[in-house]
Write a structure and sequence with these properties.
37% helix, 387 residues, seven-stranded parallel β-sheet, alpha/beta, six-stranded parallel β-sheet
Length: 387
């Protein structure tokens, strides 16, 4: 594993400089909740932050149920507008055959109307970025106006998009063709972890990496910002059952984790464990760790960027494809669905890796080769070149 990587590749730095002032404003339409997780909002914030370095202002449009997260967005210097939720449930979503229709508390038509009205009040914008499983080409077409381009961020390839750029940062088998019937021939497709939207600190910590020996002395446990299935508790029970009290354990839970009290109780069984609530040093924690236990989603690419060996489970159906591809690449030990993986299963996987440091080392090296941490800059260049 190389010891250092440049913070920004020279070619990307040059293109960033050339397009630095080409965009004035970008509008993001994204939501987050315990059910949805924090991944969609996190990657949009990452993109907004790198755009801000070039002087681009960003405004986030979120449903009112995401109001508690507004401070997170505003803390990074971005504006927030909350779209009012309806008084009555979205009956259309309740009867829809689409898997994620219930993520929207209103109809897509009403959401598009509110979004369009908010954009009219905000003023001119270069790009509308939409990262939402409940919204598709119908919504995107309804939100169009003169001079506005659309970037759709997706993972599913299960619906059409009306956009200039389609971004899917995941490693998926046959990813080059999976959106062929979802977008127009003129749409630019940014596919794979080459475009992973990672915060700058991951690239900085990658630069500080030294080779791991494969020995497991510190474990990082994190199942995302909300962890609705409480797999964090399952992982802590697994580590405690190993009977190796000297193993250091870093446990990261988000602000929206509903199981915080139980997790703190379980930490009492691990004398060298520490809980980190809404950690702002995740990249450092990953660099220090020898092994990670977690799920799929955006954290997969964060772990890869830092060459962190991982034992993973999927906590949602949309994580299966990427985790399967990661396992096939030898970059993670994928155990299957959270619903079928027990604490005993996790303990067995950790124990097997403790006995095979060479395997641990290979997992980390394969992961490191997949993600170079330059993805955010590449996406910034693509947006600037089309503005």
């Amino acid at each position: 594993m190389p010891g250092k990587a440049p913070l920004i590749a020279p070619a990307i730095r040059e293109e960033l400089t050339e397009s630095m002032n080409s965009m004035k404003r970008v509008i993001f339409r994204v939501d987050a909740s315990v059910q949805m997780g924090m991944g969609h909002l996190t990657r949009c914030l990452t993109l907004a932050n790198i755009l801000a370095e070039g002087g681009t202002a960003s405004c986030f449009l979120m449903r009112s149920h995401a109001a508690p997260l507004a401070a997170l967005v505003q803390g990074d210097g971005h504006a927030v507008r909350l779209l009012p939720d309806p008084q009555v449930p979205n009956l259309e979503a309740a009867t829809s055959d689409r898997s994620y229709a219930h993520w929207l508390p209103t109809t897509w038509q009403q959401d598009a109307e509110q979004t369009f009205q908010a954009m009219e009040e905000i003023g001119s914008a270069d790009w509308l970025v939409v990262d939402h499983y409940s919204l598709d080409a119908n919504w995107e077409s309804a939100c169009r106006r003169e001079g506005l381009r659309i970037l759709a961020i997706d993972d599913l390839a299960d619906r059409p998009h009306d956009c200039e750029i389609l971004l899917d940062q995941n490693l998926i088998q046959q990813m080059e063709t999976r959106y062929r019937d979802c977008v127009s021939a003129s749409c630019a497709q940014l596919l794979g972890p080459r475009y992973a939207l990672l915060r700058p600190e991951f690239l900085e910590q990658r630069r500080l990496l030294t080779s791991r020996s494969g020995e497991i002395g510190r474990i990082l446990v994190c199942f995302g910002g909300s962890d609705p299935t409480n797999d964090t508790a399952k992982a802590l029970q697994a580590i405690a059952s190993l009977g190796v009290p000297e193993i250091a354990v870093d446990v990261v839970i988000g602000q929206s984790n509903p199981h915080a009290e139980l997790i703190v109780q379980l930490l009492g069984e691990l004398p060298c464990a520490e809980v980190h609530r809404a950690a702002n040093n995740m990249a450092e924690l990953m660099r220090r760790a020898d092994l990670s236990i977690g799920a799929g989603g955006g954290m997969s690419w964060e772990r890869c960027c830092l060459g962190l060996p991982a034992v993973v489970v999927d906590i949602a159906a949309n994580q299966v494809g990427a985790l399967t591809a990661l396992a096939k690449a030898g970059a993670a030990l994928y155990l299957g669905s959270s619903a079928s993986v027990t604490a005993e299963t996790l303990a067995g996987a950790i124990r097997s890796l403790q006995e095979d440091s060479a395997c641990v080392k290979v997992l980390g090296e394969a992961a490191f080769a997949l993600v170079d941490g330059q993805g955010s800059g590449r996406v910034r260049v693509e947006l600037g070149s089309r503005s």
